[in-house]
Target: FAD-dependent oxidoreductase
Amino acid sequence: MADYDLLVIGSGPGGYIAAEEAAKSGLKTAVVDKGPVGGTCLNSGCIPIQSYVQNGRWALQSKQLAKYGLAQASDDIDFKALKARKDQVVQQNQQGILQIFKSNGIDFIEGEAVFVKDKTFKVNDQTLSAKNILLATGSRVLEPTIPGIEEVDYLTHESFFHMEDLPEHLVIVGASEHGVEFAFAMAALGVKVSLIEEKATIIPNQVKEVQDYVKQLFKKLSVEVIEGVAIDHLSSDQVHLSDGQEIGFDQLLLMLSRRPDLTMVKTMGLELDKKGTYLAVDENYQSSSPGIYGVGDLIGGWPFAHAASHEGIKAVKAILGQAEYPLDFNAVPRKMAVDVDVESFGLHEDQAKEAGYDVMSHQIPFMMNGAAAALEESEGFVNIISERQYGQILGGLVVGHGASEIMHILLAVYQCEGTIDELAQMVFAHPTLSETIGDVAKALVRKY
Ligand SMILES: Cc1cc2nc3c(=O)[nH]c(=O)nc-3n(C[C@H](O)[C@H](O)[C@H](O)COP(=O)(O)OP(=O)(O)OC[C@H]3O[C@@H](n4cnc5c(N)ncnc54)[C@H](O)[C@@H]3O)c2cc1C
Ligand SMILES: NC(=O)c1ccc[n+]([C@@H]2O[C@H](COP(=O)([O-])OP(=O)(O)OC[C@H]3O[C@@H](n4cnc5c(N)ncnc54)[C@H](O)[C@@H]3O)[C@@H](O)[C@H]2O)c1
Model:
């Protein structure tokens, strides 16, 4: 007889939320993890970088406050204290997850799950079997193939968070949203940062306005942005670029692509997606083997914690015989944090046109917003994309202070299949930043 109804491998946002859902629904559940509880998001992703971005924002704000005569700006940074705060935030969240396990009767087993056969795994010297398996093993940084890498004691987003002292000159290779967040967090504390991206522009998946916003910010923070140049090779303290430039560093941070480790999936004989990059699952998150499910970074889709968690819940619902619709790709919010938040969902204007919609798009800068002026937070804008026939909302982009919070107003209307007219009729309190959402909606209604 199986030991459990559900064995979850991986305690990241995909795994632990699924385990909670399963246990609350009466399934005897266990979670296995070989690393610290909470996975990438809690230990070396969303939470620690958010905490460091906040340090950067405080540093910039303290200079701003000093400008208005409210405080004394100081360039003295106690980085050990900032790291200690981050460690404390992480530990507090780890305790929270362990408490969820305890209060829901979930067994948590620390160790690497090694596939034995069928739905049986070995963890340390324990053999565990379950009626259902949920693989939530996430992704990891690809092994770099840059010539000379073996000579360099480089950092990844994991080892970066163990750093006790600020580097003098940090070179970051890879300028996706993540690379950009690390560059901001360090540059705002006064670290000299060089950011190298081999594609034509940094944050290649963002719209041009966001790319331009970040480039302008990095100019102010004296971040050296090097785009469209490949790395020829590395030496112990220099990056040698293909155009002959040599960039010295005392710390090198590689922010390259993350992909799932498919070793176990392959040993288990499970099918992969067409490109062979991710575990293939059906609309119920079930793999090619009945009773074995997969969620989160392991299966592709949006590589976000909230996507992993929702997929985990849906997989459990399927196990319970209460299958739901799969996650709506367009309803997953996407976040980047620099001095302000950059939050988006759904389609960009060009994507909406390509999809064949009669597109309306309107954008209003926060400069026009009274609350933003009073808060000295006039950076950024609200952009809403809708279609002309029914006023259906297709996407949104908010750049600005608190964007990651106020974006959820738009998302809620989208999720409830509300229209731009309904959004335009909503009463927003004054003075608030959210009023700009109402103003954009009114402008779109006038375009009908
Ligand atoms: C720098 C950075 C910043 C990010 N910022 C954000 C953000 O702001 N917002 C956001 O939503 N997302 C963010 N992400 C993405 C987010 O971290 C991931 O999408 C999310 O963690 C995926 O969850 P998961 O459960 O699929 O896997 P993970 O969180 O990676 O968890 C997988 C777990 O499985 C365990 N495991 C793997 N194999 C085994 C095995 N054989 N036995 C036992 N245990 C095993 C691992 O130890 C790990 O704990 C960020 C990522 C990075 C790298
Ligand atoms: N707000 C958002 O929309 C948001 C936030 C976070 C992540 N994401 C998305 O998540 C996905 C996954 O991101 P990821 O973290 O796996 O990484 P990724 O593949 O997007 O980023 C790695 C970056 O490093 C660059 N790079 C790789 N090798 C290089 C080299 N040798 N020299 C210089 N540059 C090099 C790549 O061109 C790329 O821009 C991406 O599609 C990203 O856009 C989106």
Notes: The chain has 13 helices and 21 strands. The first helix runs from residue 13 to 24.
